[in-house]
Amino acid sequence: MMRFSSHAALVACALVLTGCSGSKDAAATKDTPASLTVTVVRPQQLSWPRLLGANGNLQPWQEVVISAETGPYRIASLNADVGGRVRKGQVLATLARETLLADRARLQAAVAEAQANLDKADSDVARARQIGDSGALSAQQIQGYRVTQQTSQASLAAARAQVRAADVQLGQANVRAADDGVVSSRTALLGKVVNAGDELFRLVRQGIIEWQAELDARQIGAVRAGQSAQVTLPDGQKVTGIVRLVSPTLTSTTSRGIVYVRLAANSPARAGMYGSGVIDVGSGPVLTVPDGAVVLRNGKSSVYLLGKNNKVKETAVTTGQRRDGRTEVSGIATDAQVVASGGAFLSDGVSVRVVSAAK
Question: Where is the YknX-like C-terminal permuted SH3-like domain (predicted)?
Fold first, then answer.
């Protein structure tokens, strides 16, 4: 009996100790502190300039094609080259004039002949008028003189018109710039025989370059003609410009439209470059959070919001501008409680300790 009682007492003690240990473990688990101490803030709504980022090609505002207006004639001289600035009316090239001068001399001789024929017809008509009453000339003969006079007048007018046409051709032998600009290409070669319509030069009209910025359907609706823009060139230089035109249509493949930004004259921009820049579409309200609140993972931006029982929830956001230590975001409520920093060490559903809260 004594041995059995001692054994029972030992068992009872073991059970009591086990129960005590379990209670302590449960209490310890219940009182385990949160994994991270954080500060939460509410998003702040500010009025910021709205800048739309875009990329696009740099192209001439307009191109001027200079072609030969007459031909076939040989290029006798060249007075302009690629990259040169030219003025409206400036002679860029001349065509050989020998043939044109010979044609003009021949036509002037035809004018002299027509004038002589007209003088004779005028004399015949005057003489017929003097002797008409005497009956020496029939009415048919008198009418014939008058018809010859009219024919001679028409022949003289036609000959004079041909001389004027020859003068025009002589003027066209001087190939002139149609407007101010910069020579962007030259296909004219000294001694080459060109025909009417052959392209000889191409100009960037008035030397103006445009930035053709590509924007999506959401962005392009905020752009208006007259808004300012700034373009960064490949070498880092920045050029200012003004929106000239917003494309009324979008491409069917990419759903993007073109905004034509006219850059400042004499800028270092060159046609064929590719630039990135921003368009200032005015100021407006934006929802912002501290830069440290935005977490970038797998190419996506998110923030952590404080929920019930001090547990955080990862929420995807769309980011915009960054300035003054804050980032524009969308996708969260204005009264949300956002973890201000340290989000890189958190994960969805983790309990945190909040040390302070601010608007």
Answer: 286-354
